[in-house]
Design brief:
The complex is a heterodimer. Chain A is an alpha/beta fold. Helices cover about 40% and strands about 20% of the residues of chain A. Helices cover about 70% and strands about 0% of the residues of chain B. Chain B is globular and about 60 Å long. The chains are: A alpha/beta, B mainly alpha. The interface between A and B is medium-sized, with 31 and 28 residues.
């Protein structure tokens, strides 16, 4: 009996729709990102409990390549745990998580996942406070992260240009040599976004990007995030409903650790279940 | 091509003025001291007595320990209160070599008492100076590597890490206190007479040991400076300030911590190896937990994350210690404790912090 179920399990694993081609083209030890099916992220049946509390409960979520997706939900809906699972900070109790068709996120460590092209912006801006703005961007720059490379590291012309472009984009050109710790809250948010861009990620996870930003800064952030979609997949977790409305094409509503509704903003807003658990409190 | 980029990198280690200051200090140590000792006649007021040369040589070795500790604590934020064990390992390796060449065919008493008729296996090879040099780096290096992998992989940090390093040096001390360990028990290794054919009692030996210590300290300083001014150094300070962010930026903190931890331990071992022939003895007391704490005080006093501060701190504390332990031996620990409290409360950036408002290692 056990043998049968094991065989069935193996059969299912082999015949997964995103892995059929692996039979003829075995994935290498260190597979590159493959989004040939148009999907950047597959999360299926993710469950994670903390001391009996189910932070994520059989959550299934797909993010398309180049998509801009907003994730909303009341406090405790599991948004941050979801980010933690994708970036390797937390291992789920059950479920699968694939980046593209070939990269099994559950087998990689945090820094390896970052190296594969998943960048994360935290809710509280985290920059290297004692490093200058320029050094923050340089550390994030997409390049070999090995020890010896770091010891003999020197920026080349192209990388210098890339750095200057990013400084321009995030509006911190004049503060280039200032320690990041001396920046205002909003500027730190921007520096963190800039660092994220320097990593050249394929998937960006952005946790409450406009918290503590002025109206003008919020607008600029919305513009930036929309312009990033297409080349990158962007997942934004946000509380600010006006902000979500201004950028969202696809919205996913989380509730008690699983997906409650998914669709365009107006569809989601019209959903009575959503109104009950979340939007009802707002409107 | 590659060598020219190395030279241009050396140029970036320091500003022009700092290079000049460094060159003057190097000149003082490598040229002026030997002249004052060797060529100025003993009755001249400018003559430097032999005991002072050896004392200065010992301080230079201790300054190297402070440098090693600053690399790991000041720059990477990992407080080690167990560096005494790496210092002692380097010291014991050198001591083993000195013992073998000084005793030649005879066996020291502590080995005879253990019923050995010939050098036991773990004493093999120490008659060779090259083998000894290798072991000076390898013994502390491998010990640090194994300890580091275990501690850093389980993400032991902060005060917990400091406590287990205390346990490490405490364990090392007890291991070497045992006579059965075969390194002289509580007396340790002593009665050294020769090193590389040089009679250790002669003025020549004094001078050579001082000179080598000075050169080693200069090279160690340049090595540390190279590390902390490179991007690797910026990753280390990033680990100190926001380790999780470093991870999500794609760097593996484990590798970086392990690297700097092993470099630090090896530097410490080299310092121990230079210290022992100038002291004439190595025994387990180098591994008492308080000795390692004292090392941390040197760095704290001088100023963390500056390298220069560490050297300065080691110098100041050891000069005071030399005076206090002979003038007021009962008071020394109170003085040391007083210095520590004073620095922690009133000078968090150390002596260097008084000079530079904000510069250098940005600690």
């Amino acid at each position: 009996m056990n043998g049968v179920s094991q065989g069935l399990e193996r059969f299912r694993e082999t015949m997964r729709r995103d892995r059929v081609f692996d039979l003829v083209n075995n994935p290498a030890e260190n597979p590159a990102l493959d989004v040939s099916h148009g999907m950047a992220l597959y999360l299926e049946g993710i469950t994670k409990s903390f001391d009996g509390f189910r932070a994520l409960d059989d959550l299934t979520l797909y993010i398309g390549d180049g998509e801009l997706r907003c994730i909303i939900g009341p406090n405790g809906a599991g948004k941050t745990t979801l980010m933690d699972v994708i970036t390797g900070k937390t291992r789920p109790d059950a479920g699968t998580a694939w980046f593209g068709n070939r990269i099994n996120l559950l087998r990689l460590k945090e820094h390896e996942i970052a190296g594969k092209g998943i960048g994360r912006k935290f809710q509280k801006p985290t920059v290297f406070e004692n490093h200058s703005v320029h050094e923050n961007l340089e550390l994030a720059l997409h390049a070999d992260r090995g020890l010896l490379t770091s010891l003999t590291w020197k920026l080349n012309g192209e990388q210098r240009d890339q750095l200057d472009e990013t400084l321009e984009l995030i509006g911190l050109k004049e503060r280039r040599d200032a320690p990041a710790g001396s920046l205002s809250h909003g500027q730190k948010q921007w520096l963190e976004i800039g660092s994220l861009l320097m990593q050249k990620p394929r998937l960006l996870l952005v946790d409450e990007p406009v918290a503590g930003m002025s109206g003008q800064e919020t607008e600029a952030t919305a513009e930036l995030l929309t312009s990033l979609a297409g080349r990158h997949s962007v997942v934004v977790v946000e509380h600010d409903m006006d902000f979500v409305r201004s950028i969202a094409r696809q919205v996913t509503v989380l509730h008690q650790g699983s997906v409650l509704a998914e669709g365009r903003m107006d569809e989601v807003q019209a959903d009575p279940r959503v109104r009950e658990v979340y939007l009802g409190e707002e409107n | 091509m590659h060598s020219s980029s190395t030279i241009s990198h050396l140029g970036r280690l320091h500003s022009g003025t700092a290079w000049v200051i460094l060159a003057i200090l190097a000149f003082l140590a490598l040229v002026v001291v030997p002249v004052l000792y060797w060529f100025v006649p003993p009755d001249s007021p400018f003559h430097m007595p032999g005991w002072m040369v050896t004392l200065a040589g010992r301080f230079l070795a201790l300054a190297m320990v402070a440098l090693a500790l600053d690399l790991i604590w000041g720059y990477t934020g990992i407080l080690s209160l167990g560096h005494g064990v790496f210092f002692a390992m380097g010291g014991y390796v050198m001591g083993a070599h000195l013992t073998r060449v000084s005793y030649e065919d005879r066996l020291p008493n502590f080995l005879q008492w253990l019923d050995y008729s010939d050098w036991p296996w773990y004493w093999a090879g120490f008659d060779s100076f090259l083998f000894t040099l290798l072991m000076i780096a390898l013994v502390p290096g491998v010990l640090a590597f194994v300890f580091g992998v275990l501690a850093f992989r389980s993400r032991v940090r902060g005060v917990y890490f400091a406590i287990i390093t205390q346990a490490l040096t405490f364990g090392g001390m007890h291991l070497f206190f045992r006579t059965e360990t075969g390194f002289g028990g509580d007396t340790g290794l002593t009665n050294f007479t020769y090193l590389l054919g040089l009679d250790l009692g002669t003025p020549q030996a004094r001078l050579v040991l001082f000179w080598v210590s000075a050169l080693a300290l200069i090279l160690a300083y340049l090595l540390c400076r190279w590390i902390v001014t490179s991007k690797l150094g910026r990753v280390l300070t990033a680990v100190r300030d926001a380790e999780n962010r470093v991870r999500f930026t794609g760097y593996d903190p484990l590798r970086y911590k392990l690297f700097v931890w092993v470099v630090s331990a090896v530097l410490c071992g080299v310092a121990g190896a230079l210290y022992v022939p100038q002291t004439g003895v190595i025994n387990p007391s180098e591994m008492v937990p308080s000795a390692s704490i004292e090392m941390a005080i040197w760095v704290a006093l001088g100023g963390r994350g500056t390298l220069v501060g560490a050297i300065l701190g080691a110098g100041v504390v050891n000069v005071v210690k030399t005076w206090a332990t002979s003038a007021h031996p009962d008071l020394w620990l109170f003085i040391l404790g007083g210095i520590f409290i004073f620095v922690t409360l009133l000078m968090p950036r150390g002596v260097i912090g008084l000079f530079s408002r904000r510069k250098e290692g940005k600690a």
